[in-house]
Amino acid sequence: MTITPYSSKAPFTAQQILTGTTWHVRRQPSQHKFSYPYRYWGLNLTALRAGNQLPNLGRIFSAKHQGAKKTILQQICFDDYLSSVELSEDDTPLPSAISKPSMQSKLDGSVQALLHRLNTQFEALTGSQPEGEILALVVGRNLGMYFSPVNFYIGFDTQQSPSHLLAEVSNTPWDKRHYYGFLLAGASSSVSHAKDFHVSPFNPIDQHYRWQVDITSAKPNTQSQSNFDLEPSCHSETNGSISDSKPYQGQCLDISIAIHVSDERGEVFAAGIKMNGTPMSQSAIKQTLRANPIMSITSMAQIYWHALKLFAIKRVPYIHYDETLRDSKQSPTSLAQKLKKSAFNKKSAFKHHK
Hints:
This protein is α+β, with helices and mostly antiparallel strands. The chain is built from five helices and 13 strands. The strands form two sheets. It has a ten-stranded antiparallel sheet. A hairpin with a 5-residue loop joins β1 (16-26) and β2. It is globular and about 60 Å long.
């Protein structure tokens, strides 16, 4: 990645639109995979705090209102992000990182307050704060409705190399949020840790996560893919930097983040995003919203549709909240008993038919 000294007048990362795909691959206990187009608004929060502003397209796109407006097609509300981080009187995060979204933390609609919540969370989870810019990969509100399975916040050091990552994860059915934060080793990092937040009703709690994070300068003239591969390569080569584009200076980024989930059965599930950044301009905003105007709604529909297919068609056993593999219907013992019972029923039916 090209190294550029930071100054508030010349941001390293541009305000950008990151478009690409999100993909899911399930390997056990049944195989299932899907992917669909996805978009993040790439917001340089540090530059916004310094006075940089996002485009305002009236009812099409806005980031100027503190409260959600149902008449705006796409709206950035800074209070939507890290809203469940509850701060104590000395501004440190309270012990519980999991809670329902509440207004108990400092929510005033400002970028400054969001950066404050981010830095306190970075400090709590990694022991340090980013020394350079912070780029947020977030989803906006669609006609007043907010829905995002995961937002990412990338911190840079003084040499503008990726140094921190915070993942804000939401578990859709239960309306809770959790934060995973870790240090990055530059443009390519791999991090492993135990799972401690229940997300999918088809995955047990006693699992292991391995993240692969790759952040490089966007390749010039790269177009979003209409046809894409599941499980894209986690390694891409930096190929120069995108030249400055009005109205914003700075580089756009190509970002690939994958998470591999395993337990005693081996790798069970993997998911990720593969995104290409382009400068955020009024024409670019109009173009991306024409292509995918109600992404929050279609994303939620995709999640529930594929959950229904897993449960009703592929017969993947449901796992209760915080249930371990051994206690669930996906345990090797439970599945063996189910297969034995199924074989016995088929044998009995065959004898009865004879």
